[in-house]
Design a protein that fits this description.
Layout (H helix, E strand, L loop, with lengths): L4 E4 L2 E5 L12 E5 L2 E4 L5 H11 L25 E5 L15 E5 L26 H10 L7 H9 L25 E2 L3 E2 L29 E7 L24 E5 L18 E5 L7 E2 L5
Parallel strand pairs: 9-12
Antiparallel strand pairs: 1-4, 2-3, 5-6, 7-8, 9-10, 10-11
């Protein structure tokens, strides 16, 4: 079953921020037309149904092209994806390679590599899906991926505050979303008991009734990434089912369970990040609009 769509009226809002990272600026008025957005990110169970009905093979499950990796032994050109691995202790946070690892066999079915599974997590957001994998699902569902502006408008939930719920990340000590709890990247105490992704809807919805717009998993948008906001959004180039372009970065929104105050304080509507179209990781998912 597809996720319920929540109809939004559209309108003009102030997009961006000058209070955190430079790529979020400038603050500028944006008008979005009425649209509808899925109540929560696409889940493992929903993606499994799509694959079952279409036979779709995700980017992480496809063999690597030898021409793209000159000098690499054929035995090493096996399908796989990036997996987060906590470090043994404190590390230099400027070097993300210390906690990301290439895992052969990692895919949406086995997010952490061979031997892992999502069988016991049907209601968690699907991860290890690239931009084109998300777009393929959206096309099958008769929907599309949101633009960055649509996504940010929806995430704000009608509010103009730093977080959809106000100015305090944890009002009254209440945890409002699934982010890293502890010391990144070596100690995670869990968000309401969840280390990693959590079932969709575990945390409070925003003012529009949308779950997990902030935290849990980053979400793909149809907007190409630029270092600062442009006057007009550049939309994604690739139709569903095409090969991803590793030289093109798409805009991600929302932050994830790996975001912490001391690293990646991007669990806010205005925050943004970039990822190449072929990337599949344990902290990126998506939702659709119509």
């Amino acid at each position: 079953m597809l996720t319920e769509l929540i109809a939004l009226p559209g309108g003009t809002f102030q997009m961006g921020s000058t209070a955190f990272y430079p790529e979020e600026s400038p603050v500028h008025p944006v008008t979005v037309a009425p649209f509808a957005i899925e109540r929560h990110p696409v889940t493992n169970a929903q993606y499994a149904r799509f694959v079952e009905e279409t036979g779709y093979v995700t980017v992480a499950e496809r063999p690597l092209d030898p021409a793209a990796y000159p000098g690499v032994a054929a035995a090493d050109l096996v399908p796989g994806a990036l997996v987060f691995r906590p470090t043994a202790g404190p590390v230099d946070l400027r070097n993300w390679r210390q906690w990301w690892d290439w895992a052969p066999g990692a895919s949406w079915r086995a997010p952490f590599g061979s031997g892992s599974s999502v069988d016991d997590r049907p209601d968690h957001p699907v991860v290890q899906v690239s931009y084109v994998d998300a777009a393929a699902y959206a096309q099958w569902a008769g929907r599309r991926l949101p633009t960055e502006a649509e996504w940010e408008y929806a995430a704000r939930g009608g509010a103009a505050t730093t977080y959809p719920w106000g100015e305090d990340a944890s009002p009254g000590g209440e945890l409002m979303t699934n982010t890293w709890q502890g010391r990144f990247p070596y100690r995670n105490d869990g968000a309401r008991g969840w280390v990693g992704t959590s079932p969709v809807g575990t945390f409070p919805a925003n003012g529009f009734g949308l779950a997990d717009m902030i935290g849990n998993v980053w979400e793909w948008t149809a907007t190409r990434y630029s270092a600062r906001h442009r006057k007009a959004e550049a939309q994604g180039c690739c139709p569903a089912g095409s090969e991803p372009d590793p030289q093109v970065n798409q805009t991600l929104k929302g932050g994830s369970h790996l975001c912490a105050p001391e690293y990646c304080h991007r669990y806010r509507p205005s925050a943004r990040s970039s990822q190449s179209q072929d990337s599949a990781t344990t902290h990126i998912g998506f939702r659709c609009v119509a």
